[in-house]
Amino acid sequence: MTSVFCTIVPPHLLEHLAASDNPAVAATARRTLVADAANRTGRLLSLPEAPTAVAPGAESARPRRTVYDAQGATELPGVAVREEGREATGDATVNRAYAGLGATFDLFLKAFQRDSIDGAGLPLLATVHYDRNYGNAFWNGEQMVFGDGDDEIFLDFTLPVDVIGHELAHGFTQYTANLEYFSQSGALNESVSDVFGSLVKQYGLGQNADQADWLIGEGLFHPNVQGTALRSMKAPGTAYDDDVLGKDPQPGHMDDYVRTSRDNGGVHINSGIPNHAFYLAATELGGKAWERAGQIWYDVMTGGTLTPETRFTEFATATVAAAKARYGDGAEIQAVLKAWSAVGVPTD
User: Which of 7, 71, 161, 300 is most exposed, with the fewest beta carbons within 10 Å of its own?
Assistant: First the structure.
């Protein structure tokens, strides 16, 4: 199983901030980039755990959450400050992390009958208050880690629940398709996390597909930033346009696919294409996005047909097969076909 270190804020955005004329913004971004590089290297040198077998049935499943406080340091996991079933603390960041872990667990259990992200009751761990002014959140293959942000560009990374869902969904991918974190398979890895992160938010709010904002990280930016979120599944490339941040570079169609050696082949950029395909399928079908579109994507991830090197066309073809297997030749398969066609990805 591949060792993957996955952050919510992409390197290209942090690199842009590191070149800022604002010394405080630039210093914080550089510090975050250095921390991320060290963590990424450390993860590559560690031995990944083997996938856990899926437990039969999840009717009596319960989350097992622990939130730790790094207290401004970088040693993980930190001091345990809230465990499963314990009352809320006086620290809102701790409580948001605890609630976000629970919201993600609830989506996987109640919508997909999956006991935690590995299907076998994996304890969900999170560390808050990581480092000083750390401008990111990440999944390191074993747990979630949240920075407090710099209060100039980024606010507390526990604020958007879809950030929590996104990062935990990297664990879901780790224990299922194990998509390699490079090029198109890496963009799919990122997209799957955006899909399920958005579904965590929608499920918690009880929203239909047409009510959702389809934004990833809405509420993460400081009010002075000209942007609504890190990414938009509804309209890739429109999430932000700011003098300091730059402009959202995500494409929504294969015609605009970005070929780059940065960010593992543009995994955070080109994820906009499969993201938009999911948005189109979900809104075409209507209702709760996790009930049909989400079920199809879940079936693909758990069906055993993907390889770690899966490309967009192969993933798209797998969603068509999954739609047909579960729903037959009805509205579902037509919505999936229409969605991939709209973003320029063939399905045969």
Answer: 71
